From TrEMBL:
Keywords: Hydrolase. It comes from the Bacteria. The lineage of its organism: Bacteria, Bacillati, Cyanobacteriota, Cyanophyceae, Coleofasciculales. Residues 20-207 form the Isochorismatase-like domain. PANTHER family: FAMILY HYDROLASE, PUTATIVE (AFU_ORTHOLOGUE AFUA_2G08700)-RELATED (PTHR43540:SF9), PEROXYUREIDOACRYLATE/UREIDOACRYLATE AMIDOHYDROLASE-RELATED (PTHR43540). This is Cysteine hydrolase. It comes from Funiculus sociatus GB2-A5. SUPFAM superfamilies: Isochorismatase-like hydrolases (SSF52499). Gene3D superfamilies: Isochorismatase-like. GO terms for molecular function: hydrolase activity.
């Protein structure tokens, strides 16, 4: 049994393949000036802090040929998948679909919707466009996870209390064992990030576990799933 030292207690890695890395919305819209995060009045530079750790997690997963899923939040150019409540929410100068310095805000295929170049997906890694905050809402994420027999998700990305937390709750309700990587998720609001970590692991891990990336790297060194040992059940 290989355990990741985590809160509220150790997180057990699966004995078979079944572990995936989920990277939520590390797109220019949220991390660079001129995108959606900026239009909402946030200091987008805060989110850059997690990029080096995410690169290390990506390397560790790629080196072991483990599945990686990315999401991007975005809408169709005709906005047919954007409910009026989302379109009209807030009182910012710019709204979803308006033209800004990285193209139309939060629209699929626009430059602002791209994953930041430091974390660019490689061929074979799956990018899931999502119209909502949760990655299971109106996407094929669940069927892809089932197809690959994924049971355990290491969850990362931005922003901790919005898309990351929503996705983690959706995954938890669907039976996935989720661990949120503490230093691979970030928010525009440090207090919200801290509160989210605490909410997730409260009440015996009511939504899941949290752990720093260092603990994951340590455990991965020891982890040899049955398939990797050539054992099929
Ligand atoms: C937000 C996200 N914050 N990816 N999206 O609107 O968290």
């Amino acid at each position: 049994m290989v355990l990741i030292s985590a809160l509220p207690y150790d997180y057990e890695l699966p004995t078979s393949d079944g572990l995936a890395l989920l990277i939520i919305d590390m797109q220019r819209d949220f991390l660079e000036p001129g995108g959606f995060g900026d239009a909402l009045g946030n200091d987008v530079s805060r989110l850059q802090a997690i990029v080096p750790i995410l690169r290390e997690l990506l390397s560790a997963f790629r080196a072991r040929n483990l599945p990686i899923f990315y999401t991007v939040e975005g809408h169709k150019p005709d906005l047919s998948d954007c409910p009026p409540s989302k379109l009209h929410r807030g009182q910012g100068k710019l709204r979803i679909g308006d033209v800004a310095s990285m193209g139309r805000i939060l629209i699929l295929g626009e430059p602002g919707n791209e994953i930041i170049p430091e974390l660019s997906p490689l061929p074979g890694e799956t990018v899931i466009p999502k119209p909502g905050k949760g990655a299971f809402y109106h996407t094929n994420l669940e069927s892809l996870l089932r197809e690959k027999k994924i049971t355990h998700l290491l969850v990362t990305g931005v922003t901790t209390e919005v898309c990351v937390q929503t996705t983690m709750r959706e995954a938890n309700d669907r039976g996935y064992e989720c661990l949120l990587v503490e230093d691979a998720t970030e928010s525009y609001f440090p207090d919200f990030q801290q509160s989210t970590l605490e909410m997730i692991r409260a009440q015996g891990g009511i939504v899941g576990w949290t752990a720093p990336a260092a603990n994951i790297f340590q455990a991965l060194e020891k982890w040899k799933p049955r398939e990797k040992l050539g054992i099929r059940s």
